[in-house]
Amino acid sequence: MTQQQSPAAEQPPVRRGPGRPRHADTEARAYRAVLELFGQKGWSGLSLDGVATHAGIGKSSIYLRWKDKRDLLMDALHDLEEHLVVPEETENLKIRDYLVAHATARAELYLGEHGSALSHLYSAAHANPSEFAEIRQQNISRGILSLHGRIEKAVADGELPKDTSVFHLLDAIEGAVLVHVLFSSPKNNEDLSTGIGEYVRKLVDIQLRGIGATV
């Protein structure tokens, strides 16, 4: 007499589908996706669902981390700014070299893979002031405000004339770099990148001579 098999033994094992894999780099993928989509479609064309699809991430992973597209974009921009390589004040660079280093880093950021997102940022902030108030303060103004103290120190130390207007000097340099990059043809980006160092050095020297500083 054969031994009767249990019902459990008679059933073949159930194989579950692979489902959507979990990614350890969810934040990095989301940051890249939101910047790419923002650069392509602007603020009105951006959505968390779109970011999830573009990044290949489950929507639940996105919604668990960010409540809306503004929060995700702000985190992505903050992460991008964190990777901006600029000189530390402890390096004791002369003000001319300090300004050149900062402006060059800013130009390279505009010319990088997320340059289109940064260019959209300015127009979106102007068109949507309430949504972009915090982003504007923390990201758009950050590059300028971070230099404010260093220029004030240069004035106090006699590197720059006593009547130097900090904001006018920074606006002239930062604004010129932005316009130089944005109004050049995309096909010339490689040439722009190659010559950006020389452009920035000449730009800074012109501005410093204009306020009566020695370069």
Automatic annotation (TrEMBL):
One Gene Ontology molecular-function label: DNA-binding transcription factor activity
InterPro entries for this protein: Homeodomain-like_sf, HTH-type_TetR-like_transc_reg, HTH_TetR, Tet_transcr_reg_TetR-rel_C_sf, TetR_C
Protein name: TetR/AcrR family transcriptional regulator
Species of origin: Georgenia yuyongxinii
DNA-binding region: 47-66
PROSITE patterns: HTH_TETR_2
Domain HTH tetR-type: 24-84
Keyword tRNA-binding appears in the UniProt entry: no
Disordered: region residues: 1-24
Pfam families: TetR_C_11 (PF16859), TetR_N (PF00440)
Protein's UniProt keywords contain Transcription regulation: yes
Keyword annotations of the record: DNA-binding, Transcription, Transcription regulation
